[in-house]
Amino acid sequence: MRDDSIHMLVPSTNKGRYALDDPDHGQEVTSGSSIAILLHGQWIEGKVKHASFLHAGDYNIKERVPGGYYFIAGDGNVYDLCYGMKICLL
């Protein structure tokens, strides 16, 4: 990834959402956004999704948990999004 295409997830001024680099002026990351996340030194490509609640059986989750924005990798693995995470828009 080029350094100028790498962003940091920050809390958006819109409650419950993420923005890129700047809460007030950064582009928001929304459901359907194609991104890559940096995990353990490797870029993983996938999409951002949103759900009010996730249920047992959804994406191998064992119990009902509060929803929000999450990341589904191309291989089907699900990851939480979190502030400070490095991402690249695809």
What does this structure look like?
The chain has about 90 residues and is mostly beta strands. The relative contact order is 0.28. Strands 3-2-1-8-4-5-6-7 form an 8-stranded antiparallel β-sheet, with no helix packed on it. The protein contains no helices and 8 strands. Helix content is about 0%, strand content about 50%. A hairpin with a 4-residue loop joins strand 6 and strand 7 (about 80). The radius of gyration is 13 Å and the shape is globular. The mean pLDDT is about 85. The protein starts with 5 loop residues before the first strand and ends with a strand.
Shape: globular
Q: Which blocks of ≥5 consecutive residues have pLDDT under 50? A: none
Ends apart, CA distance between termini: 10 Å
Largest sheet: 8 strands, antiparallel
Strand content: over 45%
Major sheet: arrangement of strands: 3-2-1-8-4-5-6-7
Mean pLDDT: 86
Number of strands: 8
The sequence of SSEs as H and E is: EEEEEEEE
The radius of gyration is 13 Å
Number of helices: 0
Helix content: under 10%
Derived from helix and strand composition plus strand pairing, the structural class reads mainly beta
Brief rundown of the structure:
The chain is an all-beta fold. Helices cover 0% and strands 51% of the residues. The termini are close together.
Helix-strand layout with pairing:
Blueprint (H helix, E strand, L loop, with lengths): L5 E6 L6 E3 L7 E2 L4 E6 L2 E13 L10 E9 L4 E3 L5 E4 L1
Antiparallel strand pairs: 1-2, 1-8, 2-3, 4-5, 4-8, 5-6, 6-7
